[in-house]
Amino acid sequence: MQGDGAAPLAHRAVPRARRWVGTAAALALLWFSGCGGGLERDDDGNRVQNCDPASRKAALADYFSDWYFWNTLSPKPSADGSHTVAAYFDALLYTGGSASFPADRWSYFESTESFNRFFGDGRALGYGVLVAGLEVEGRPDLPLYVRYVEPRSPAAAAGVARGDRILSINGRPVAELIAAGDFSALTASAAGQTLRLELAAAGGGGRTVSLQSSTYDLVPVPAQQVVTSPSGRRVGYLMVKDMVSQAVSPATEAFAGFRSAGVTELVLDLRYNGGGLVSVARDLASLVGGPRSAGRTYTSLLYNARRAAANNTSYQFNDPQQALGLQRVYILAGERTCSASEQLANGLRPFVDVVLVGDTTCGKPVGFLPHDDRCGTTYSVVNFESVNANNEGRYFDGLRPACAVAEDWTKPLGSTGEPMLATALRHADGIACTAPAAARQRALAATGTRIDEGERRSMVADR
């Protein structure tokens, strides 16, 4: 999750997947520079740091000491010349040892340009093709499917679609890539790079496509419709892919349409939602809860002991006129449901019957107040934990589904024949589902392994 005025980051060679929950205020970046380390003041009285490595490491040490959620539990390495800035960042991270908290696998950094592009402009750089790589981890004998294509991306323009089976990437056979756990070719670092995919189409036949990376607009709400359950219930279906500010308007319009259509049940598809801004998740949750939750606490963000008095923050539910105010909501979820999207489910639970369908979520009840170092890097360091109105949080093992369902990537999203949606529709009709799925988190963050580009969640263990 991540705060409104902030977002998460990514770093390491691959860079780390984006990780957020959300916190505090407006989409203006907040600057937190450490004391010392070559700091000086500009004409506006703001802290400005020299961008040499020694100054940046000293500023990081000060920032972690003041703002890091685990500031009393984390290592305190010397900011000497033996570390690069990136290595020093890693050395500052909490490594575990407390019974209450696992090691920090979520803090990361990325370029400020990338951060602003996603959270400010609602855009992404890349090819726009996402694969079901987590599901075939360590199984080179299994096929690799396209699970999602960004609607305005180069992949979409080339006709790549969910359900296409990938045979090779840039000439490397898929079995080789799965065995190596290497899908880095799907991540572009600049516009104009080339990706070659050999595909077997869902409907038969094969082809090779060549994609050029570019910056494209995100479509944070890619699907909305009214469907009918087997017994005739009118059900609203809404997929939200990214918790960015550009999602609020189309989601609100969709709920207005659901109200007009007289829906009696709602399915919110967050299976690929890796998180984003707390305020956006709160606004979406308010459209679900309506009068049932209006004015009540959606979430509280709790900082470390040093920052708590000044920074602990609560978000209240809104009462939008388009809200449905239903007693129950179905949330389609899985390993890629992370951070602010998990927070949405947890925030609704005290007021609405939340029925999770799919697989266990990523398990990230912590978030960031992103920090721009004014040297081209934005740091998303865990600053707070998130709890709901009942003070429930710390779901580091993820939120488990009531109905465990395996995904079928050959079925279109939003189709009543797609297993996760079909299960929700049957449950709405009173048909019992299976027992909760076992947690399947993968702690990939420690290795920097990246499954594919375009993931915005805050930890790889969520994949």
Précis, in short:
The protein is α+β, with helices and mostly antiparallel strands.
Secondary-structure blueprint:
Blueprint: E1 39-41, E2 47-49, H1 53-67, H2 85-91, E3 108-111, H3 112-119, E4 123-126, E5 129-131, E6 144-149, H4 154-157, E7 165-169, E8 172-173, H5 174-180, E9 194-200, E10 206-212, E11 214-217, E12 223-228, E13 234-239, H6 248-261, E14 265-269, H7 278-289, E15 297-303, H8 308-311, E16 313-316, E17 328-333, H9 340-348, E18 353-358, E19 366-368, E20 371-372, E21 377-380, E22 382-387, E23 403-404, H10 419-428
Parallel strand pairs: 13-14, 14-17, 17-18, 18-23
Antiparallel strand pairs: 1-2, 3-21, 4-11, 5-6, 6-7, 7-8, 7-9, 9-10, 12-13, 15-16, 15-22, 19-22, 20-21
Helix pairs in contact: 6-7, 7-9
Please describe what this structure looks like:
The chain is an alpha+beta fold and 463 residues long. Among the domains are: 95 residues, Roll (Pdz3 Domain); 207 residues, 2-enoyl-CoA Hydratase, Chain A, domain 1 (Alpha-Beta Complex), CATH 3.90.226. Strands 5, 6, 7, 8, 9 and 10 form a six-stranded antiparallel β-sheet that branches. A six-stranded mixed β-sheet has the order 12-13-14-17-18-23, sandwiched between helices. Strands 16-15-22-19 form a four-stranded antiparallel β-sheet. A hairpin with a 5-residue loop joins β12 and β13. α7 runs parallel beside α9. The N terminus and C terminus are likely disordered.
Mean pLDDT: 85
* CATH homology superfamily name of the domain at 223-365 and 385-442 and 457-462: 2-enoyl-CoA Hydratase, Chain A, domain 1
**CATH-assigned fold name of the domain at 223-365 and 385-442 and 457-462:** 2-enoyl-CoA Hydratase, Chain A, domain 1
N-C termini distance: 15 Å
Rg result: 22 Å
| CATH architecture field of the domain at 223-365 and 385-442 and 457-462 | Alpha-Beta Complex
Helix content: 10-25%
Estimated share of beta-strand residues: 15-25%
Largest sheet features: 6 strands, antiparallel
The helix-and-strand class reads alpha+beta
Instruction: Give the uncertain stretches in residue-range form.
Output: 3-48, 441-454, 456-463
Broad shape: globular
CATH class assignment of the domain at 223-365 and 385-442 and 457-462? Alpha Beta
Number of helices: 10
Q: How many strand units?
A: 23
